[in-house]
């Protein structure tokens, strides 16, 4: 199968930090279809060779083990081309069409690795130039919109140019091997399904924690914040995969229909419940990795007195028969105590304990990063005596070790799926808009809340109010157990 893959924003951070290295890994693994061309477009004027040299320099910053040798890079770079393009000029889209028409590839993937405010302009120009035929796919990088209205506007324009089956709204968390394994865990095994419900599960926690601060991304982050950056997309997508009913098949729309049902069943927020069930925070100076680090307001290009949240913790429920009454706790933040992404399924305690001493509840931990695997926490008697107190033990599965030869990175998987036309791991427009609808009451409440975010010390797990949020129900975050 021949393909052309075009990166709009070809000199941007996303392209050289994530997309090009992911494509190289697909090339190295022999998974990239043969007879392909990769085209980067941007405003700078440079020939192919100069762009390839520029890209080679950028590849030196790729983590060790994923850097190409000189010989590997030369073979990969032979697929890479560059064209200058002003995204506001219609004739530049006509020239792009001519370039793509030189060999009439079987598939054309147009990846919008640009600022989201350019999405509508680019899509309209692509439509006007006739670059929206049935073999064309458009990939839209998040964040898609700033709120419900802007997301709907982008989707209206996208749908006016492309069919829904041509639109690939990317959420790179869905490409992580461990996230893909959520489907296999739930619907490829008989072990957990009888327990995957309110009668057996006490609460579910989703944590997406980062130890780094905003760094040089101050201007972008200050206009976005943790709720838009992580909760509205990544965390909610994980929640839907944990809570969804079994789809009728592995078809993309069958899966996305079930995810949409979960989003529609989420308990809606009111001003009263936002004030009670949502905690927002902002890090101040502290210590990370043994070094002193500045607070958010001291980071470069962050406006003085900004109320942008760098931490969010919230409580919600899925209001259906399977999950009624089970709290779902979501949290994310910058400058937390560790880089950690995981889902914790806390099971209910035994109804009548017969062993002395206390006991910890059984727990299934689905690890997303930095480790990738499953940990099942059980109780056992160390000496085998029924008269001694039980101790927790763990069954730990490391997917990176178990499937080392077959592991594929998130962007590598999603780029290959976009080329192949597989929509299973991409977000449909109605899913995305429903997620925005759910978070919008929180955004509206914060607009009128002059108190701003709660302060927390960098290198900790966020404001104390986040612990109180969970403790109110008699639970605790996993690191506090």
TrEMBL record:
According to its UniProt record, the EC number is 1.1.1.49
Where in this chain does the entry annotate a coiled-coil region?
A: none
Pathway entry: Carbohydrate degradation; pentose phosphate pathway; D-ribulose 5-phosphate from D-glucose 6-phosphate (oxidative stage): step 1/3
* GO biological process per UniProt: glucose metabolic process; pentose-phosphate shunt, oxidative branch
SUPFAM superfamilies membership: Glyceraldehyde-3-phosphate dehydrogenase-like, C-terminal domain, NAD(P)-binding Rossmann-fold domains
Please give the catalytic activity noted in the UniProt record: D-glucose 6-phosphate + NADP(+) = 6-phospho-D-glucono-1,5-lactone + NADPH + H(+)
GO CC terms, sorted: cytosol
List the catalytic residues. Answer: 234
GO molecular-function terms, A-Z:
glucose-6-phosphate dehydrogenase activity; NADP binding
InterPro entries in alphabetical order: G6P_DH (IPR001282), G6P_DH_C (IPR022675), G6P_DH_NAD-bd (IPR022674), NAD(P)-bd_dom_sf (IPR036291)
Q: Which residues bind substrate?
A: 172, 176, 210, 229, 334
Q: Which UniProt keywords apply?
A: Carbohydrate metabolism, Glucose metabolism, NADP, Oxidoreductase
**Which Pfam families does the record cross-reference, listed alphabetically?**
G6PD_C, G6PD_N
- Which residues are listed for NADP(+) binding in this entry? 43, 86-87, 142
- What general EC class does the enzyme of this chain belong to? oxidoreductase
| Role this protein plays | Catalyzes the oxidation of glucose 6-phosphate to 6-phosphogluconolactone.
What family does this belong to? Answer: Belongs to the glucose-6-phosphate dehydrogenase family.
Please state what the protein is called. Glucose-6-phosphate 1-dehydrogenase
Q: From which source organism is this entry?
A: Roseateles depolymerans
């Amino acid at each position: 199968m021949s393909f052309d893959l075009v990166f709009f924003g070809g000199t941007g951070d996303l392209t050289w930090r994530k997309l090009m290295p992911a494509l190289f890994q697909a090339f190295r693994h022999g998974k990239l279809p043969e007879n392909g061309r990769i085209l980067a477009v941007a405003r700078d004027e440079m020939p192919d060779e100069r762009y390839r040299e520029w890209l080679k320099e950028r590849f030196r910053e790729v983590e060790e083990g994923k850097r190409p040798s000189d010989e590997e890079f030369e073979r990969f770079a032979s697929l890479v081309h560059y064209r200058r393009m002003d995204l506001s000029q219609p004739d530049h889209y006509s020239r792009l069409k001519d370039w793509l028409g030189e060999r009439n590839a079987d598939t054309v993937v147009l990846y919008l690795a640009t600022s989201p405010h350019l999405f509508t302009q680019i899509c309209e120009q692509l439509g006007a130039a006739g670059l929206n035929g049935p073999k064309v796919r458009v990939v839209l990088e998040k964040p898609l919109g700033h709120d419900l209205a802007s997301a709907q506007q982008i989707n209206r324009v996208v749908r006016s140019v492309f069919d829904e089956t041509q639109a690939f709204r990317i959420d790179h968390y869905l490409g992580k091997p461990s996230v893909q394994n959520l489907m296999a865990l739930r619907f490829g095994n008989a072990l957990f399904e009888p327990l995957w419900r309110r009668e057996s599960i006490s609460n579910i926690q989703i944590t997406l924690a980062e130890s780094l601060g905003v760094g040089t991304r101050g201007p972008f982050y200050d206009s976005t914040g943790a709720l838009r950056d992580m909760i509205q997309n990544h965390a909610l997508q994980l929640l839907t995969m944990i809570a969804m009913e079994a789809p009728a098949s592995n078809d993309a729309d069958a899966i996305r229909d079930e995810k949409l049902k979960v989003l529609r069943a989420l308990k809606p927020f009111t001003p009263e419940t936002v004030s009670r069930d949502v905690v927002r925070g902002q890090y101040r100076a502290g210590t990370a990795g043994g070094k002193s680090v500045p607070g958010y307001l001291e980071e470069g290009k962050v406006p003085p007195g900004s109320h942008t949240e760098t931490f969010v913790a919230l409580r919600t429920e899925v209001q259906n028969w399977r999950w009624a009454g089970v709290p779902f706790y979501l949290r994310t933040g910058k400058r937390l105590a560790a880089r950690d992404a995981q889902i914790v399924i806390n099971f209910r305690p035994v109804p009548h304990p017969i062993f002395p001493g206390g006991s910890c509840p059984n727990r299934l931990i689905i690890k997303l990063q930095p480790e990738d695997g499953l940990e099942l926490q059980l109780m056992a008697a160390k000496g085998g005596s029924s008269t001694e107190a039980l101790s927790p033990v763990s069954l730990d599965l490391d997917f990176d070790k178990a499937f080392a030869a077959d592991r594929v990175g998130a962007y590598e998987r999603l780029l290959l799926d976009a080329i192949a036309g597989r929509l299973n791991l991409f977000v449909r427009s109605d899913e995305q808009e429903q997620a925005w609808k759910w978070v919008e009451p929180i955004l509206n409440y914060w607009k009128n809340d002059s108190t701003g975010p709660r302060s927390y010390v960098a290198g900790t797990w966020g404001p104390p109010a986040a612990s109180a949020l969970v403790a109110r129900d008699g639970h605790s975050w996993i690191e506090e157990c």
